[in-house]
Amino acid sequence: MTYAVPDQHEQFMRLLAKHEPVVRAYVRTGVYSAQDVAEVMQDVSVVAWRKFDQLEDHSGFGKWMTMIARYEIMKFRQTKARDRLVLDDEIIDKILQEGGEETSIREAWIEAIEGCLAKLPPRHRTLLLEAYKPGASVKNLAARTKKSPNSLYQTLHRLRGRIANCIESEMAHE
Question: Is the pTM of this model over 0.90?
Answer without folding.
Answer: no
